[in-house]
Amino acid sequence: MGEENIPIFHVLDTESSHGRYSKSSKEIKFDDLVKFHGHACDGLYRGSYALAVAFAELFPNGTIDRTDLRVISRNSPCLGDAATYLTGGRIRFGTQDVENRPGVWYIIQRIATGEAVSVSEDEGFFPEEISKIEASLPELSGDILSEKLDKLKEMQDTWIRKVLLNSKPTEHYHVKRVKYTWKEVQYSNKGIRTDIIFKDVM
Ligand SMILES: [Zn+2]
């Protein structure tokens, strides 16, 4: 139940290592994201919901240009992986970065036009009770830690099933256009993403 609310993404890439734009888009489903990230956690779902709302604003035609985006999120494995996979932004090309701000949010910018959006989850949508357990884990050990991990996963999965999947992305994730000046990514091994250089060649 609620599966119909899970976003499906259509992305545009180039056709080879030095390729032009591909002539067709690809469909990415939540299961594809899970294979990349490793598990179907609340963060991956919430990230997908947030990104779907942001992309609808940046790409009204419904196709996400993965050659033209840069993205910032909190440094969560789950939120960051959703952003990497769906935007094509990567730290090593200077197109993905993190900021230490709590919550589920992204800033996404189209490189060609500078258009940027900020998307975030409603405060209080994710249960405080679950967040508190997550925060308490580093102080636990042994059997108590083991029990808490099981309890946490059960609570997260229940929330996903009963709350998140029964809502549409636009109900609890909100996007606004912002002016954003991209700050150079502080990573000294950055390189050039060569597979998009010739994308516009006819
Ligand atoms: Zn995760």
**Strand line-up of the largest beta sheet:** 5-4-6-7-8
N/C terminus separation: 46 Å
Helical amount: 25-40%
The number of domains is 1
The number of helical elements comes to 6
* Rg value: 18 Å
Low-confidence blocks of residues: none
Bound molecules: zinc ion
Q: What's the count of strands?
A: 8
Molecular shape: globular
Return the average pLDDT rounded to an integer.
96
Largest sheet: 5 strands, mixed
H-E string: EEHHEEHEEEHHHE
- Which strand-content bin applies to the residues? 15-25%
Quickly give the structural class. alpha/beta
Q: If classified by CATH, what would the architecture be?
A: 2-Layer Sandwich
According to CATH, what is the topology? 60s Ribosomal Protein L30, Chain: A
- Specify the CATH class: Alpha Beta
